[in-house]
């Protein structure tokens, strides 16, 4: 209690540099960094923080970009707050006050001086308390006063020194240290002018802008529009209710099959719907129909019906006016020109499991499943080497050569179906007889797998095939003989 004067000085310094925490964090941050929506914590500003005159230094922007993502950037100035110096100062001052304490308890001659000290301390304490209670800005004047106080203490120590006839080393040392404190306070003052306080204010402003941005985003919470064939989104976030188009043209017993809408990358004005129910054995692909418009499809009008011998399973896909399918009782892939109904390419899919070895859950004979996304043709299958886990290959749609292969950790017979969007495989599984879940993803761009949960309502129990069309972002699903459509909702890209 007797010699808390340095401690009080310290308390003051402590307050004077109260904006330290934030600056310490910022100091180690890159000079420019984006602040994602969630990353800003609550402001740590408590009641009374001194404020110094601050030069404008920062260049801060906060905006909502065209994807609906709130973005903010902070540009920090080159000058950084001397956090290490402050810490040093704190340690020094604490040590100092401890020493002081020890000495003063020993030396009785100091009593007179100490009384003055105590009064001074009380005065200083009152002043500090006042500063804390009022949230007025601190100015140059406050610093001047602080410096005066320190000078005064310096004078008192000088006095003490003379009364002790220069024989006390500790007092000598205290003198030097108080001089040092003066220098540090001067330093801090100049630095603080254009540093921490301004940063804190900018960050608070930024938080407010982010909140505004969030609010406005919440208000316009309609699904973001992505142009046909675009991959500028962050993947599936939701799916519509199923829209039942019709029962397949061959009738209710034809529970297996596939259907879809051709994706023409270069001539999107073309329209072609295809329906390929398997024979009732659930294995042979023999007949398919083509329609040049959605109306024709709905009305069973102007259908072009063709026969092939034979395809196998419901893994069929159509891309750029060619049909791709697994040729019966083989691991061969076939490319069929839909204008002429002729097989133009036949190629073995190396190592592919075949003959109902690793088909999907609840769906037979779909060892080889073709898929179309924005970038073209893919094939989803398994190998003995992959122990039945899903293998994905990107194909050259001209030659059916395998361009690249990815191995996943997902067992193929435990998923009910799969499709690919923007290079990301999505796999489904049944939840019950009326609900299906998109639960697994494998991103071939990053080779990362992931878990999601998007529930698809379904009309009937089994999903035999899913074909994705990049131009309308729709899934074409063959559900126990019914042709069903689902619209996909994508999320904006995050980070
Ligand atoms: C500055 O540091 C002190 C002690 O570490 C802390 O109590 C105070 O809250 C910090 N100031 C700010 C504005 O965070
Ligand atoms: C932000 O920085 C840019 C480039 O340094 C400058 O042109 C612009 O005027 C600054 N804006 C503000 C508000 O300081
Ligand atoms: C403390 O404050 C009182 C009243 O403001 C003043 O009269 C006194 O001189 C001050 N003492 C010191 C040591 O500054
Ligand atoms: C005072 O500061 C100088 C230079 O900053 C340093 O070398 C010296 O050790 C300091 N003295 C004490 C007692 O802290
Ligand atoms: C925006 O909506 C989300 C959930 O829909 C909610 O958690 C958040 O608090 C909302 N934000 C604002 C600023 O209203
Ligand atoms: C997902 O879509 C369904 C059907 O349109 C809708 O009822 C539901 O609210 C959506 N869920 C979310 C999280 O947007
Ligand atoms: C689509 O087919 C046409 C005609 O065969 C061809 O010229 C074009 O290159 C194909 N486009 C793609 C992306 O394969
Ligand atoms: C696909 O094969 C054709 C013919 O060999 C070739 O011209 C084309 O560049 C290949 N495409 C890709 C993406 O490898």
Automatic annotation (TrEMBL):
Keywords: Coiled coil, Secreted, Signal
Ranges for domain Olfactomedin-like: 230-492
One Pfam family recorded for the sequence: OLF
GO cellular component, one term: specific granule
Record GO terms (molecular function): cadherin binding; structural molecule activity
Compartments where located: Secreted
BP GO annotations: immune response; negative regulation of canonical NF-kappaB signal transduction; negative regulation of immune response; positive regulation of substrate adhesion-dependent cell spreading; signal transduction
Signal peptide: 1-18
Coiled-coil region list: 107-134
Cross-referenced InterPro entries: Olfac-like_dom, Olfactomedin-like_domain
Entries under PANTHER family matching the protein: OLFACTOMEDIN-4 (PTHR23192:SF7), OLFACTOMEDIN-RELATED (PTHR23192)
The protein's name: Olfactomedin 4
Organism for this UniProt entry: Pelodiscus sinensis
Taxonomic lineage: Eukaryota, Metazoa, Chordata, Craniata, Vertebrata
């Amino acid at each position: 209690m007797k010699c808390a004067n340095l401690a009080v000085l310290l308390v003051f310094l402590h307050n004077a540099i109260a904006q330290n925490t934030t600056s310490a964090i910022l100091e180690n941050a890159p000079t420019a960094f984006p602040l994602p929506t969630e990353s800003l914590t609550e402001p740590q500003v408590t009641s009374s923080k001194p404020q110094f005159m601050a030069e404008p230094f920062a260049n801060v922007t906060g905006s909502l970009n065209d994807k609906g993502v709130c973005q903010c950037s902070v540009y920090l100035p080159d000058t950084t707050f001397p956090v290490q110096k402050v810490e040093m100062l704190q340690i020094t001052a604490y040590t100092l006050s401890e020493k002081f304490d020890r000495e003063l308890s020993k030396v009785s001659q100091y009593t007179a001086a100490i009384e003055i000290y105590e009064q001074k301390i009380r005065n200083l304490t009152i002043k500090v308390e006042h500063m804390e209670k009022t949230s007025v800005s601190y100015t140059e004047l406050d610093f001047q006063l602080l410096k005066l106080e320190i000078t005064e203490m310096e004078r008192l120590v000088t006095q003490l020194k003379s009364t002790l006839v220069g024989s006390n080393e500790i007092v000598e040392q205290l003198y030097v240290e108080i001089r040092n404190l003066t220098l540090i306070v001067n330093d801090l003052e100049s630095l603080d002018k254009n540093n921490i306080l301004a940063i804190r204010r900018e960050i608070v402003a930024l938080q407010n802008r982010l909140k505004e941005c969030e609010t406005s985003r919440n208000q316009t919470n309609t699904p973001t529009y992505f142009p046909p064939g675009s991959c500028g989104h962050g993947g599936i976030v939701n799916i519509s209710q199923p829209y039942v188009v019709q029962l397949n043209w061959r009738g209710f017993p034809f529970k297996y099959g596939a259907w879809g809408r051709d994706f023409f990358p270069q001539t999107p004005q073309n329209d072609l719907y295809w329906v390929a129910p398997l024979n009732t054995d659930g294995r042979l692909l023999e007949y398919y129909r083509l329609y040049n418009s959605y109306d024709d499809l709905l009305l069973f009008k102007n259908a072009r019906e063709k026969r092939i011998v034979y395809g196998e399973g419901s893994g069929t896909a159509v891309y750029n006016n060619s049909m791709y399918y697994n040729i019966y009782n083989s691991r061969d892939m076939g490319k069929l020109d839909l204008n002429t109904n002729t097989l133009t390419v036949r190629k073995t899919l190396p190592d592919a499991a075949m003959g109902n070895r690793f088909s999907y859950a609840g769906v037979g004979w779909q060892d080889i499943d073709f898929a179309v996304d924005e970038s073209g043709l893919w094939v989803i299958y398994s190998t003995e080497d992959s122990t039945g886990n899903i293998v994905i290959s990107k194909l050259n749609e001209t030659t059916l050569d395998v361009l690249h292969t990815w191995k996943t950790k997902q067992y193929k017979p435990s998923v009910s179906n799969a499709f690919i969007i923007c290079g990301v495989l999505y796999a489904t599984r049944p939840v019950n007889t009326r609900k299906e879940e998109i639960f697994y993803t494998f991103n071939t761009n990053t080779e990362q797998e992931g878990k999601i949960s998007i529930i698809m309502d379904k009309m009937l129990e089994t999903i035999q095939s899913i074909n994705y069309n990049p131009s309308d972002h729709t899934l074409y699903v063959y559900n126990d003989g019914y042709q069903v459509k689902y619209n996909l909702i994508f999320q904006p890209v995050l980070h």
